[in-house]
Amino acid sequence: MNGVLLLRIWRFAATRLVIITLATIVWGWLLLFFYSQFSEALRQLANQSPFLKQFTNFGSGNLFTVTGAITLGTQHPLLISLIGIFAVGGAALAIAGERQAGTLEVLLARPLPRRSYLLTHLVAIFAMVGLLIAALLIGMAIGAVSQGLTGELDLGRFPLMWLNGVLLWGAFASFSLAVSASFDRPGPAIGLSLAFLLANYFLEILGSFWTDAQWAQEYSLFHHFEPGEILAGKADPFDLALLVAVIAVPLAYALWIFQRRDLAAPA
User: In Å, what is the CA distance from 155 to each residue of 58, 59, 103, 140?
Assistant: First the structure.
């Protein structure tokens, strides 16, 4: 890992990171506020209409319990978009973007090994993701205290929830970085990275809306980050092990392919 490059990456992303961190804190608070204010009314409506009840489930979450609301919030498209800016977009541009701009060759002309360059980007993105997940949990903790929901939540399980969240988004970042190492243009790298993210999201949402397709959720990485299960003390160690494996395999490929590639100056 290279400290100078790490600071450069963070400095380049600093403004966006501050704005999105604040937005993530607000989102975490808003989840608990919305649950506290509207969950009872939604529960009554769902009891009157079984059809509506089916559509109150979103992913692995629901609007009827505080843990279900938290799970729903972590799988909401808004939060996925916020974190995906760094975990998917930033990772996909890490190598392919520099390659197209013609700056990668300049960086590698210095005494900076390719392996160190790639791992520095991975560490920087993991740190950004860790900060955003922590901001989300801080917002949730503020919401739980302000709305009087601390009795329904075990805040002592938040660290495990943080770890699981970081591993989930680390898996997407590792895949995106591997794709970025394989292309000379950011277009294909971003496209494949987003396709991987959306495919996992589609499988998770499909299984929640269509009972006969619940099996599809098991093939989604999002299904292996369930805050509700963690907060209930039912965390599955297999989820953590699977996410670690999904991080390791693309990373090993990225280290291999990036070392072998010919990076002649772009025309």
Answer: 23, 23, 45, 10
